Amino acid sequence: MTKKIAVLPGDGIGIEITAEAVKVIECLNNDFGLNAEMEQGLVGGSAYDASQTPLPEATLDLAKAADAVLLGAVGGYKWESLDISVRPEKGLLGLRSELELFANLRPAILYPQLAHASTLKAEIVSGLDIMIVRELTGGIYFGQPRGVRTLENGEQQGFNTLVYTESEIERIAHVAFDTAMKRNKRLCSVDKANVLECTELWREVVTRVSQAYPEVELSHMYVDNAAMQLVREPKQFDVMVTTNMFGDILSDCAAMLTGSIGMLPSASMDKNNKGMYEPIHGSAPDIAGQNMANPLATILSVSMMLRYSLQAEELAVKVEQAVNRVLDQKLRTADIFTDGHTRVGTDAMGDAVVAALRSNL
Known about the structure:
Mean pLDDT: 95
Radius of gyration: 20 Å
């Protein structure tokens, strides 16, 4: 049965890195029997330039009809002066909301070949393997009311609302506990229950859900301490679950433990395991078009797509093995390059992964 993949390159380096991921999918189609059909659409700044909206109806329809979505990156300096309602990031938020992608899975894995690239000591990060489960469609990014208003004294005031319902917390908690059951059965729930009533409810609900998972060891941690512990002793964590904003911040912190944000994929899932897959880095407009960007996070996002949405675990493993072989060959893009390695561009790195895949036929 043919699987449909919506490919949304977006802006900046998103165009380049997505092209390399498409090469990998084409290789899987031609040589490994994947049988996936790809169709491209516009999102973000490129979509605004073409149609005055960051999420055209045609793109949303394409994404809804697909079995999975592959996204590059959105945003850039060019669109920062636009009204917030039509900035590129609204296209990304719109996709998450319209597709009901409430669960974001962000692995932070340190490949042994890149231990030298981390800013922390090797003994602190060697063997690092964390999964951060971030709630994605609720919390302060979506809460109402929000905006900027003028007070009676003429002063402007900005305001956003942090809000979660029990059902929203319950569903992300189940995803986190299910994820922990497939790993080392340890889950840390991150909140700020000492000062935020909303996350006091978060802690209560997560604790209640834990009763259905007696094999999982549940702990709780305030977000400020969690940020410190990620840098101090990151290997104490197995699975972390947290709110939209806290997850946004902590997952980027965890990314740098691995040596480069250019190495980390992510999956945003709905209740039926349909997902949108994207690297966690941004559009990097300063290097766009220069053949410098690291495509490995996007290629590893394809691996997550194969595993979670396309039910092709064997192919997911093959992609991961190909990335490992390329790193063993000491090929490095600029973000992970050090002396003693061979520096390559975006396209050459993608070609190397495809070659490594074919060598495993």
